[in-house]
Amino acid sequence: MSKSKREEERQWKVRKESQNPHGKVKSLEEIADEIFAEWKEKK
Questions:
Q1: What is the model's pLDDT at position 34?
Q2: pLDDT digit string (tens) for 1-43?
Q3: Which of 24, 32, 40, 43 has a Cα-to-Cα distance from 7 of 20 to 30 A?
Q4: Closest by alpha carbon to 10, among 31, 30, 42, 18?
C-alpha cells in the first residue's frame, strides 16, 4: 500500500511551501516605511 511517487512529491511540496518559520517576508517598501517612521520619531 505505498503511495505513488507523484503523491509523495506533491505532499512534500505542500509541506515545504507551508513552512514559514520567520513569519511573512516584508517587502522592501514595508521595510523602508518602518525605517522612515523610526527616523522621523528620532528627530
A1: 92
A2: 577 999 999 988 888 877 766 667 778 899 999 999 999 888 7
A3: 24
A4: 18
In this prediction, residue 21 carries a pLDDT of: 67
Closest CA to 5 of 13, 22, 39: 13
3-state SS track over the chain: CCCCHHHHHHHHHHHHHHCCCCCCCCCHHHHHHHHHHHHHHHC
Q: Tell me the C-alpha distance between 22 and 24, whole Å.
A: 7
Q: Maximum distance among all alpha carbons in the chain?
A: 67
